[in-house]
Design goal:
411 residues, hpI Integrase, Chain A, 3 domains, 11% strand
């Protein structure tokens, strides 16, 4: 199928004179120019459930240019998406009535930038990457951390992406912002990144719903917290012995994750340059960018852990080699492989990969005399309040003793 190479659709129409069969030109994103015997029209193909449907967006003879067809396509798709979500957007003729209704309902005009700030201050503490950082903080402290990009990865991404929007959109009342205008502004900022545009459209809908109803779809505020299933620590040694008999890279990675008490993503992306010596002893250093709470973390390595990874590779680029490489040229092992390895013998009701951190913490509390702050530091937890503000040491010597005891228990 040929693609459009010119903005002048008339040329494609003239080229079809005398041709009684349709020629279809793709403009991308399911938009096509259909030409036959000197005539042409724009057609949008889209999926409705399990069926594929088509919509005519106008003819070339009526002056519908490629740019106009693209705008009509975007408006149609946004309207369909909002209709599925139950969002009815006011048209130009309905603006006055909508504004009056909003006022009656107690919704006041609020610039998008102010709405965003209010939304983030209230809901950023729920986000996974911000929970540990924002726990126990006042609204003023949360606002300051958000403004300085110290409130976690999600909050930083939210703030920085919205900060790139034009001033006239950030200053407009969020309820008056039309999705098509917002989408056009986003496309100008991220012309080659459809994912970023889609993400921003979803965020606009979230903010508009929050402004009018105070509801955030998917919010877990007030809901009971669901904990990860964790294996009782007395059962861990038997499971580790079984894992040791498996030679798959995922089995080695899972053993490493259990022995180091880290999160699975931190194991998956581990590389050899992170294996360093601290005070003459081997450690695994994870930079702040790799950690959930965005604080660097150092794990003292035990002999059992060193046996898992073997000898350090040599040669050019050896530092970037993954500790647990993927197959078929993939740098890291696939997400979920460790869970698959676990599921071979352990059902979901008994344990998941993250739950071994709970097993470690329960064992440390029940079976050792290690102080609480040492065990929390081993898990890279951010201790809230004054205690966390003052406790900034690595506690490496005490944590090395703790990790050695854990390794001996697991073996």
């Amino acid at each position: 199928m040929p693609r459009l190479k010119k903005e002048d659709a008339d040329e494609y129409v003239r080229a079809s004179i005398g041709n009684m069969k349709f020629t279809r030109y793709s403009d991308g994103e399911s938009l096509y120019l259909m030409t036959r015997n000197g005539r042409g029209y724009w057609r949008l193909q889209y999926r409705d459930g399990e069926d594929f449907k088509a919509k005519v967006l106008g003819t070339v003879a009526d002056g519908v240019t490629p740019n106009k067809a693209r705008q009509d396509r975007d408006a149609f798709m946004v309207a369909r998406r909002n209709a599925r979500k139950g969002i009815i957007l006011p048209g130009a003729a309905q603006m006055t009535a909508a504004a009056a209704g909003a006022a009656t309902a107690g919704v006041t005009a609020e610039p998008l930038s102010a709405l965003l700030a209010r939304f983030m201050i209230e809901h950023a503490p729920e986000w996974k990457s911000a929970k540990a950082i924002l726990e126990g903080k006042t609204q003023a402290q949360i606002a300051e951390l958000i403004e300085t990009d110290k409130a976690g990865k999600a909050a930083k991404d939210y703030r920085r992406m919205f900060a790139q929007l034009p001033a006239h959109i950030l200053g407009a009342d969020a309820q008056t912002i039309q999705p098509l205008a917002f989408r056009t502004a986003c496309k100008a900022i991220w012309p080659d990144n459809a994912d970023s545009v889609a993400r921003m459209m979803k965020r606009l809908a979230t903010l508009q719903l929050y402004q009018t109803t105070g509801v955030v779809k998917g919010s877990k505020k007030g809901k009971a917290k669901r904990h990860h299933a964790s294996m009782p620590y007395p059962d861990v040694p038997a499971f580790m012995r079984e894992l040791e008999s498996r030679k798959h890279v995922a089995a080695r990675a899972l053993r490493w994750t259990i022995l180091s008490a880290v999160r699975s993503s931190e194991t998956r992306e581990a590389i050899w340059s992170e294996i360093i010596d601290v005070e003459g002893k081997p450690c695994w250093f994870l930079s702040a960018e790799r950690m959930k709470a965005e604080n660097s973390h150092t794990v003292p390595l035990t002999k059992a852990m060193l046996d898992i990874i073997g000898e350090r590779p040599t040669g050019k680029g050896a530092g970037n080699v993954a500790l647990f490489p993927g197959s078929r040229g993939v740098r890291f092992i696939s997400n979920g492989l460790m869970l698959e390895e676990l599921r071979k013998t352990v059902p979901a009701s008994v344990a998941d990969v993250h739950g071994f951190r709970t097993s470690f913490r329960s064992w440390a509390a029940d079976c050792t005399d290690i102080p609480r702050e040492v065990a929390e530091k081993a898990l890279a937890h951010v201790v809230p309040g004054v205690e966390g503000d003052y406790q900034r040491g690595l506690l490496l010597a005490k944590r090395r003793k703790l990790m050695d005891q854990w390794a001996k228990f697991c073996q």
